[in-house]
C-alpha cells in the first residue's frame, strides 16, 4: 500500500495497483472548493493513465463531514470559467468524466454530504453509507439557488420524480436509512460494518478483468445517464441564480449564521433554512 496526494485536499492510497482509495481532507468541514476540484482533476488524469486500475473508493478524513457543500465565499468561482479535458467547465467535466470512466467509483459515506457533495456521490457508480452517521441534502432551493452539478438531472433517475422533488424543493436533511429507501444510495450499513463491506466489494471488483467491467459499465451508462446538455442547463441555471437579489440575501444570511464554519448552522443546515430570514423580519 502506498499513499500520495493528488492535491493536499485529495489524498490517494493505492491499496493495490487495481484498487485505490481517495480521501477528502479539506479541514475543517470538507467544503468543496477550487482545491477539491483540482484534486479530483488530478486524480482523474492518474486514473486515465493507470491501465491496471479497476476501482476507486472515495471517503472522508472527517467522520462528521464527507463533503459539506460548494464554497459560497466567492473564492472558488474561477472553476466555473475554466474547462476540463472534455471541454466542459471544470465541475461538470469532473462529474461526467468520473461517471464515464472505465474505472468503477464507489462513495463510502460518513458524515454530512450536501449540495455539490450530494451531486458528487450521484456521479459515482455506487454509494454506501453509515446508518448512524450520514446526513444527505440538496439544500440549494432553501439557500435561494438550484442544484447546478447534476442533482436535478441524476436524482430523479434514482429516486423517481416525487421523491426527487421532495428532496430538492424541501431542501431538508435526510438520514442514511431514508436515503436508502428512496434509492439515493445503494445501502446504509451499521457504521461498524461499513468499512469491511466496501473493502470486500472493492477488492472483489478489482480481481476481475478490466475489459468486461468497462463494457458492462458503458452499457448501463447508455440507459441510465442524463444527456450532457441537460447537465449544462442545470449548471447555467445555477450560475444565473447566483445573481438573483433574493439569493444574495439568503446567502448573506447563511454566512451571518456561520456558514463554512464549525457550528450549528453546518451541523443542522436543513433546519436553519426554514427560518433563515427570521433574523431580518
Task: Describe what this molecule looks like in 3D.
This protein has 281 residues and is an alpha/beta fold. 45% of the residues lie in helices and 20% in strands. Strands 1, 2, 3, 4, 5, 6, 7, 8 and 9 form a nine-stranded mixed sheet that branches. Helix 1 links the parallel strand 3 and strand 4. Helix 1 packs parallel to helix 2 and helix 4 crosses helix 5. The chain is globular and about 60 Å long. The model has no long low-confidence stretch (mean pLDDT 95).
Net shape: globular
Which class do the helix and strand fractions yield? alpha/beta
Cα radius of gyration in angstroms: 18 Å
Largest sheet: 9 strands, mixed
Pick out its properties.
281 residues, alpha/beta, globular
Summed up:
With 281 residues, the protein is an alpha/beta fold. It is 45% helix and 20% strand.
Strand-helix topology:
Elements: E1 2-7, E2 10-16, E3 19-24, H1 34-48, E4 55-60, E5 65-67, H2 90-100, E6 104-114, H3 116-123, E7 126-137, H4 151-159, H5 161-170, E8 173-175, H6 176-182, E9 187-189, H7 191-206, H8 210-224, H9 228-241, H10 245-257, H11 264-267, H12 269-273
Parallel strand pairs: 3-4, 4-6, 5-6, 6-7, 7-9
Antiparallel strand pairs: 1-2, 2-3, 7-8
Helix pairs in contact: 1-2, 4-5
